């Protein structure tokens, strides 16, 4: 599923697509992503009219509604700059499904062009910025949950862990069945709550068993799910978006 | 219209129109370029990993190895053909032996229970083998029918080392299987097995509990 | 153990029951973990992507030429002496098979593993006609003894553990209670050997039907498939019309993918290729061989370029082995012949979306199924497609399309669409949500039965970026 992708040289400017979950619930993650990019000497343009990539409707079967929302985003990226998305899930939607969604419509070419410029944040930091991280934090263990979309749809199982590996005082601990889904899946968590709960329960147990008191993810859907489960059980384990973690450890 | 015509009509008149025919690149299932020794080693490693036994012999001493196998496994009744050089040589070697040789050129209806209940082992020749997967290939004949490699609790197969090829694809291509298939062609890779009881392997669930492969090497040195 | 009937309509209740059954949870988790690790190991020295690409292309080529290949298969089978029958649906296939049995005055049928025969409920049909149909694959035999259906397409009895199986064999066949798997296997061997000898007809499935040579290929480990197709005087093979491949050379790559994907085996014990009934002079094998080609909704799936991919399937079961939902709820929960991801994309076509409407949504779209599929079926995309069909947005002819169309839900999505296409309103509402965050309900339906409710941030990313740029602007000026 992982296709070989040729990465461009580091650009002067990028667009940042923050995603609706980050906008509403985890804005700090978005801001930290922007700061990481800026520290690499890149000017970050945040189109103010951005809302949502359209994925919730798309995966629920409401393709027309998804297309209308996606279409509202298509026009926001007029310059040929890369578009950085701090989410494998929304990134996967825009890179993989926009071309399908607009196939046979007048905006097909534009959708393909936009899709070709989509990068997930850790992917961009790693492969385009060739970021070098200097860890300033105290020694600790951290667990990582790479989202299924980042892992499979975008083929980015390695970028998060490799960035964490640059942090000299951080020990990345491997959880059992790391590649398994946390059970979020958007409306899946609501339509099949018991199955979803069984999945997130196993995921939290696996993370807890690593001995890490802290976990990071590259997707705020997973974060909301896993951290929400930990919090519900009043566990000490807490999570944050990898962008915040990287920023916090290196400033 | 009958079912056949209805089905074919629906398939021919599909709503989304004719389909593109993609190319198939078979290079991933061929071109291993193993040496004869690598093939033998690989065959042995794979077939023994699934509980097959391999005994190395030469073209001249293999019947002596066969006698040892029969003795070691207490085989009293051995089913085998009469015409293929393998059973012919085996019969000659076992002529004055205390193993009873059971003729198999009889219609199964005439000796079904006898074959199911009183034969200890079946001996067959093989067409060759596949190094990649540790598989024997057999084209059963009137002389060596289908069931003698299946019904008796032990199957002894005689294989020539130089008849081991790299892959299944290579065998199908090299021997032109597509130009004429027999009633039954078989790949056999180990004794009968099951893992249907909680993933625990058990052998001999329906077919042979044991598969012994006598590999005949052309030279004494092998 | 009492007989439980599972239906796709009751998916939620069945999932609830399975999730609350520690035995089921343990049995499946253990089995699936083992299968996943074996598959990973067995492919480790392969160019797996090239092999999957080849597998997908072979299947796509076969589908592209499907009507021609079926005719070619028929002609070559007939030339070899195999009689070919066509059935539009399961009932017709059952009738054809029953009539073939009746023509031989058959009373006892022995069966090799065949999911198509499960799909059409063949055993019940034959039994209603006074013909006993006994499963001979050990897993199928156990499931049949226990009056259940298979919970996995490759490992039918995977929901049962050793103790449960021991109890079933003890109850139904009088064997000793034991944990000795060799003993239980030997007992089943002895019982089934009698039945092979006595059977009037053997019925099997088909893994690949080769058009070029008129050959039926069967993949198995136990030898019951060879017994079934060799010992009784009549062999009836039953298969879906999509199982045809063009050339004999197409078979090795698919076989390589099938065994490795299914059980992590380099190869199965037997690969059984049947091209004709017993010929004059031959001493064993059936006098008659029949091939029953079953449509049962497949030609309908075939109409649509996207849904067509469903028909690539070679029935390895890797999608269920890797599915986090299947692993937790087990095969019976789906209430369908084919469970797991492939079941979710196949069964709606066979049973209609009315009955199966909860199946396409029972996925987090994690993509594990599509990642391991040996013929690269885009299962997650097909799940989304069927969700679309269910809410009435599809253009296909999936039976029961539109069953989940709901004015209320549509309005909600239209409202969401309006909000997300009016950026000023969007920004305003995230601002309001942030200001009112103290009022966020702590109960959000099912979500908060297991997790805390997410709280809107005080300031949205839009607001944070604005402040951040303002600060930067000041810094620069």
Q: Tell me the number of strands of chain C.
A: 10
- Overall, the morphology of chain A is globular
Number of helices of chain C: 23
Distance between the termini of chain C: 80 Å
> pLDDT under 50 segments of chain C (min length 5)?
none
Mean pLDDT of chain C: 95
Radius of gyration of chain A: 18 Å
What is the helix tally of chain A? 13
Into which percent range does the helicity of residues of chain C fall? 40-55%
The termini of chain A sit apart by 36 Å
Q: Overall pLDDT of chain A, averaged?
A: 96
CATH fold annotation of the largest domain in chain A: Rossmann fold
**Major pleated sheet of chain C:** 6 strands, parallel
* Oligomeric state as shown: heterotrimer
Strand order of the largest sheet of chain A: 2-1-3-4
- How would you name the CATH homologous superfamily of the largest domain in chain C? NagB/RpiA/CoA transferase-like
Q: Outline the biggest β-sheet of chain A.
A: 4 strands, parallel
> Which regions of chain A are unreliable across 5 or more consecutive residues at pLDDT < 50?
none
Rg value of chain C: 26 Å
What is the structural class of chain A?
alpha/beta
> Which H/E pattern describes the elements of chain A?
EHHEHHEHHEHEHHEHHEHEH
């Amino acid at each position: 599923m992982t296709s070989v992708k040729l990465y461009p040289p580091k650009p002067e400017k990028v667009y940042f697509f923050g995603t609706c979950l980050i906008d509403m619930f985890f804005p700090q993650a978005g801001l930290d992503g922007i700061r990481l990019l800026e520290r690499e000497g890149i000017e970050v343009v945040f189109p103010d009219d951005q809302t949502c990539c359209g994925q919730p409707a798309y995966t629920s079967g409401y393709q027309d509604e998804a297309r209308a929302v996606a279409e509202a985003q298509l026009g926001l990226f007029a310059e040929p700059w890369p578009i950085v998305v701090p989410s494998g899930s929304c990134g996967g939607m825009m890179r993989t499904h926009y071309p399908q969604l607009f196939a046979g419509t007048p905006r097909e070419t534009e959708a393909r062009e936009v899709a070709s410029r989509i990068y997930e944040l850790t992917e961009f930091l790693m492969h385009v910025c060739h970021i070098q991280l200097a860890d300033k934090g105290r020694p600790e263990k951290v667990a990582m949950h790479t989202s299924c979309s980042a892992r499979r749809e975008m083929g980015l199982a390695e970028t998060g862990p490799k960035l964490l590996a640059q942090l000299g005082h951080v020990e990345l601990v491997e959880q059992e069945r790391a590649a398994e889904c946390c059970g979020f899946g958007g409306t899946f968590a609501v339509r099949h709550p018991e199955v979803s709960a069984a999945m997130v329960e196993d995921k939290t147990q696996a993370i807890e068993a690593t001995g890490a008191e802290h976990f990071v993810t590259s997707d705020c859907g997973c974060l909301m799910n896993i951290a929400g489960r930990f919090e519900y059980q009043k566990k000490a384990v807490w999570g944050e978006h990898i962008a915040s973690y990287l920023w916090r450890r290196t400033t | 219209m009958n079912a056949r015509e209805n089905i074919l009509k629906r398939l021919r008149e599909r709503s989304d129109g004719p389909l593109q025919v993609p190319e198939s690149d078979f290079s991933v299932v061929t071109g291993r370029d193993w040496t004869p020794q690598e093939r033998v080693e690989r065959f042995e490693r794979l077939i023994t990993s699934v509980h097959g036994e391999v005994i190395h012999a030469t073209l001249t001493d293999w019947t002596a190895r066969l006698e040892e196998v029969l003795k070691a496994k207490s085989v009293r009744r051995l089913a085998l053909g009469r015409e293929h050089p393998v059973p012919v040589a085996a019969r000659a070697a076992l002529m004055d032996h205390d193993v009873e040789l059971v003729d198999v050129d009889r219609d199964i209806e005439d000796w079904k229970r006898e074959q199911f209940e009183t034969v200890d082992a079946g001996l067959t020749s093989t067409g060759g083998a596949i190094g990649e997967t540790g598989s024997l290939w057999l084209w059963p004949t009137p002389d060596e029918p289908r069931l003698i490699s299946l019904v008796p609790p032990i199957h002894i197969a005689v294989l020539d080392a130089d008849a081991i090829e790299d892959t299944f694809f290579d065998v199908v291509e090299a021997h032109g299987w597509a130009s004429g298939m027999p009633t039954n062609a078989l790949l056999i890779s180990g004794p009968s097995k099951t893992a249907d009881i909680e993933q625990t392997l058990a052998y001999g669930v329906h077919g042979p509990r044991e598969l012994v492969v006598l590999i005949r090497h052309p030279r004494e040195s092998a | 153990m009492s007989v439980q009937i599972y239906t796709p309509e009751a998916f939620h209740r069945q999932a609830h029951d399975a999730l609350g059954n520690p035995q089921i949870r343990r049995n499946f988790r253990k089995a699936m973990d083992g299968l996943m690790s074996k598959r990973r190991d067995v492919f480790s020295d392969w160019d797996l992507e090239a092999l999957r690409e080849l597998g997908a292309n072979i299947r796509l080529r076969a589908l592209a030429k499907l009507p021609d290949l079926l005719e070619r298969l028929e002609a070559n089978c007939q030339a070899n002496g195999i009689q070919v029958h066509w059935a539009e649906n399961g009932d017709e296939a059952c009738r054809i098979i029953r009539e073939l049995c009746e023509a031989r005055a058959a009373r006892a049928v022995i069966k090799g593993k065949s999911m198509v025969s499960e799909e059409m409920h063949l055993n019940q049909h034959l039994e209603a006609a006074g013909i006993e149909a006994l499963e001979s694959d050990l897993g199928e035999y156990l499931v049949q003894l226990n009056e259940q259906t298979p919970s996995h397409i490759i490992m039918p009895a995977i929901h049962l553990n050793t103790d449960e199986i021991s109890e079933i064999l003890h109850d139904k066949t009088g064997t000793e209670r034991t944990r000795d798997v060799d003993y239980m296997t030997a007992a089943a061997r002895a019982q089934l050997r009698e039945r092979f000898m006595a059977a009037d007809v053997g019925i099997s499935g088909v893994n690949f039907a080769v058009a070029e040579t008129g050959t039926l290929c069967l993949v198995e480990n136990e030898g019951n498939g060879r017994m079934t197709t060799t010992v009784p005087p009549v062999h009836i093979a039953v298969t879906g019309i999509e199982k045809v491949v063009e050339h004999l050379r197409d078979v090795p790559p698919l076989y390589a993918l099938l065994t490795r994907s299914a059980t992590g085996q380099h190869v199965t014990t037997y690969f059984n290729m049947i091209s004709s009934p017993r010929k004059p002079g031959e001493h064993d094998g059936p006098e008659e061989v029949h091939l029953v080609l079953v449509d049962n909704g497949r030609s309908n799936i075939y109409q649509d370029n996207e849904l067509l991919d469903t028909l690539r399937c070679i029935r390895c079961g890797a999608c269920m082995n890797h599915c986090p939902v299947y692993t937790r709820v087990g095969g019976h929960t789906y209430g369908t012949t084919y469970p797991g991801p492939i079941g979710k994309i196949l069964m709606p076509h066979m049973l209609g979306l009315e009955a199966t409407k909860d199946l396409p949504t029972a996925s987090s779209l994690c993509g594990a199924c599509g990642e391991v599929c040996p013929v690269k079926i885009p299962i997650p995309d097909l799940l989304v497609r069927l969700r679309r069909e269910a809410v009435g947005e599809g253009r296909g002819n999936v039976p029961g399309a539109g069953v989940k169309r709901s004015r209320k839900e549509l309005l909600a999505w239209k409202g969401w669409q309006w909000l997300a296409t009016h950026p000023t309103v969007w920004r305003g509402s995230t601002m309001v949500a942030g200001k009112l965050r103290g009022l966020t309900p702590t109960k959000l339906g099912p979500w908060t039965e297991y997790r805390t409710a997410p709280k809107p941030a005080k300031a949205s990313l839009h607001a944070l970026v604005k402040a951040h740029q303002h600060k930067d602007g000041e810094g620069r000026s």
